[in-house]
Every structure is written in structure tokens, then in C-alpha cells.
């Protein structure tokens, strides 16, 4: 049997190293078709994805089990990307493979009237994962420096200080025991067009289509600028961004699965020891 924690040999480099945002990287230069660090191809994906989903689910269960024994740590996956980048697919095909008992999913859309009456981090704090849980943010507090900036929903004097504020917020979370995995998902404009077109062709996909998606496409240069500022200013040692090319869904799913596995392995967990005498319990059970 292979050692379960060995990086699958199809990866030449660990995704957390390979995909980590580095100062100087330009969003405009990101190749959304690329498959960085992966030596295999699409035909390798189904088997590998199934294997790694199993490994991820096992580690997730271990995180949950440890919380029952008092461990307060948690993990937060932050998914940011333009429409059609595949955030929903990550939730369904990657996170969906583990026990829902230990997962807290939250998508962030246009804020409600109540949410708008509070500080922008109010709704985010309420959605943070409890001890032992994996929180999944489908969009996040970063919308408050992305769509908000691009559409001038608040003046620059309001969004500008948010970068530092978000860094301080994430530092606080990390200090309290939450490992944050931030993933910026990049799809090219051409591929996005194909995916939007498919949504318009298929009745089972209409629900994913929003006429406003076209307006966002038109603002792609402004979004590139906003994504650049987000990466430049909020990729920290304690909560770095990872850049995931998403034109090939099979690749983005494999890569993000590895990012999650690597983050959970970093917690150096083992199964919690019993807080009872196993042999004595076996004897008691045999007797009844
Ligand atoms: P979707 O993820 O396709 O359901 O779309 C949700 C929409 O809500 C996207 O267009 C987001 O940009 C938008 N959204 C998310 N957060 C905010 C926010 N804080 N302010 C304004 N719009 C937001
Ligand atoms: Mg959408």
C-alpha cells in the first residue's frame, strides 16, 4: 500500500508551493489554461480525484474527531473568482465528498438590507467555522474590495482601509486556530463566454445564469485591477493566496483538493486517544 500522505507522483511540486501567490505576479499574465505542477493529463484525473477525495474526507473526519476531544482548530476555505470560474463545482465535487456534519458552507451574494446596516465583516464573522469544522466561503469578505470597488458602491476612502482591516481580521482568526486556505480562481474571458453560452443553452443551467454576468464581463479590466490589488495587499504569511487556473475543471479540482489536504496535514493530527479504558469496556460489553 502506498503511504497515504505521500504527494501523488503525478504532481511535480506541492500545489501549496507551486500555486502560492508571489509578489510581482501580474493577474493579466495568468494563463488560465495552464496546469502548473501537474505531470499528468485529463485522463488521470478521475482516478486520482476519487483517491484524493477519500484522503481529504479522512482528514476532515480527523479534524472533527479531535474537536470532540477538545481541539478548537478549524479550517476556512475562501473561494474567490469571477462567474463561471467553478466555485460551485469545487463545493460539489471536492468538498461534497466529505461528511456534511463537519462542513459549514456559506455563499456571499449581494448583501441584504440588514447586512448592509452592519459593518461588512458582520455577516462574515457569523459564518466562521466552529471548532473542528471546515468552513467554505463561496465568495467572501473580498467582495468588499472587488465588486464594491469596481462598481463604486462605496467611495475609495471607505474601501481603501479594508485591505489592512481584512489582514488584521484574518490574523485574528489564524491566532484563534483557524487555518485559512485562500484560493483565487481564474477563468479566461473566452472560456467564460463558453460557459455562459452553455448556461443559456441548457434549461438545467438557466438558474446559474444572471443577466448581470455580462455587465461584469464588460468590466473585466477593472476586475483585473481589483484582483491585483487584493493579491498584492492581502497575501500574507499567515493567510497567503493561491492562484488556480480554472479553464480545465479537472485540474482546478485536483489542485484545490491538494491544497486542502496539505493544510489539514499541516495540523499534524492523529486520531484522538480514548478517554476510557478500552480493555475494561470490552469486558463490560462482553458481559451484557
Ligand atoms: P453568485 O455568486 O453568482 O450567486 O453572485 C453573487 C453576486 O453577489 C455576485 O455578483 C457578487 O459580486 C455579489 N456580491 C457579493 N458580495 C457583495 C457585496 N459585499 N456587495 C455587493 N455585491 C456583492
Ligand atoms: Mg453567478
TrEMBL record:
Q: Where is the signal peptide?
A: none
Pfam families named in the record: PPK2
One Gene Ontology BP term is: polyphosphate metabolic process
Which InterPro entries does UniProt cross-reference here?
P-loop_NTPase, PPK2-rel_1, PPK2-related
Q: Where is the Polyphosphate kinase-2-related domain?
A: 50-266
Q: Name one GO molecular function term.
A: phosphotransferase activity, phosphate group as acceptor
Q: What is this protein called?
A: Polyphosphate kinase-2-related domain-containing protein
Question: Which species is this record about?
Answer: Mycolicibacterium parafortuitum
List the lineage, top down. Answer: Bacteria, Bacillati, Actinomycetota, Actinomycetes, Mycobacteriales
Amino acid at each position: 500500500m502506498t503511504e497515504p500522505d505521500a504527494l501523488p507522483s503525478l504532481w511535480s511540486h506541492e500545489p501549496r508551493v507551486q500555486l502560492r501567490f508571489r509578489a510581482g505576479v501580474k493577474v493579466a499574465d495568468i494563463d488560465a489554461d495552464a496546469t502548473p505542477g501537474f505531470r499528468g493529463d485529463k485522463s488521470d484525473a478521475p482516478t486520482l480525484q476519487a483517491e484524493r477525495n477519500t484522503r481529504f474526507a479522512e482528514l476532515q473526519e480527523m479534524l472533527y474527531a479531535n474537536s470532540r476531544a477538545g481541539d478548537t482548530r478549524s479550517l476556512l476555505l475562501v473561494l474567490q473568482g469571477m462567474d463561471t470560474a467553478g466555485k460551485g463545482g469545487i463545493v460539489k465535487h471536492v468538498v461534497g465528498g466529505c461528511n456534511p456534519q463537519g462542513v459549514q458552507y456559506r455563499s456571499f451574494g449581494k448583501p441584504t438590507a440588514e447586512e448592509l446596516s452592519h459593518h461588512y465583516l458582520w455577516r462574515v464573522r457569523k459564518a466562521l467555522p466552529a471548532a473542528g469544522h471546515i468552513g467554505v466561503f463561496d465568495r467572501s469578505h473580498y467582495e468588499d474590495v472587488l465588486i464594491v470597488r469596481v462598481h463604486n458602491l462605496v467611495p475609495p476612502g471607505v474601501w481603501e482601509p479594508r485591505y489592512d482591516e481584512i489582514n488584521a481580521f484574518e490574523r485574528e482568526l489564524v491566532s484563534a486556530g483557524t487555518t485559512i486556505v485562500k484560493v483565487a480562481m481564474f477563468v479566461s474571458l473566452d472560456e467564460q463566454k463558453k460557459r455562459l453560452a452553455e448556461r443559456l443553452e441548457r434549461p438545467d443551467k438557466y438558474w446559474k445564469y444572471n443577466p448581470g454576468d455580462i455587465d461584469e464581463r464588460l468590466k473585466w479590466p477593472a476586475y483585473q485591477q481589483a484582483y491585483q490589488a487584493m493579491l498584492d495587499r492581502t497575501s500574507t504569511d499567515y493567510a497567503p493566496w493561491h492562484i488556480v487556473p480554472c479553464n480545465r475543471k479537472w485540474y482546478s479540482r485536483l489542485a484545490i483538493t491538494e491544497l486542502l489536504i496539505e493544510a489539514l496535514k499541516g495540523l499534524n493530527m492523529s486520531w484522538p486517544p480514548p478517554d476510557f479504558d478500552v480493555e475494561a469496556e470490552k469486558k463490560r460489553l462482553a458481559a451484557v
